[in-house]
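Researcher: Structure prediction, please.
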Amino acid sequence: MAVSDEQIRSKIVDRLGRVDSVLDVGCGNCDLVRFLAQHVTKEAVGIDINGSVAHETVHSEADDSLHTAECRRMDAQQMNEFADACFDAAISVHALHEVAQPERAVREIRRVLKDGGVLFVADFTEGETRWDEDYFTPEQLTESLRRAHFQAIDVEKVPGEHFMFASATK
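Model: Predicted structure follows.
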């Protein structure tokens, strides 16, 4: 049984709680960004080198107010439009393995996170055969996060699946 979107979203909510701003790296069609604005944050910004461009206001079920969901075309390896330390949290779902230089993207993510900010990753692991792509092992992701100077690194491989959840703190 594959890891579902609902399981991933539940892990995100559990790990991040409520924060003011979240960056979604590799946001694709912007669906997860809208979810983040509704359930996790006041301001959700997604970036994707090939993704949708959108800016909308969504109703938050968490506090019955209006929150921002925005998606931009941007390379995760060079997020010059963002200042240092401007996001409380960052996520990457099914995307980090697709970045040409993932370690560069991880360093950029750390740069745009505030001190104490959390990075959450949900991705396939080595051994997955979908789409004939190369995926990280949990050990490779852990080492990449270490080299980028993240702390409190926690990587959990999902039993019976080629999938992992990871989190780390700036």
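Model: The mean pLDDT is 94.
Researcher: Thanks, that helps.
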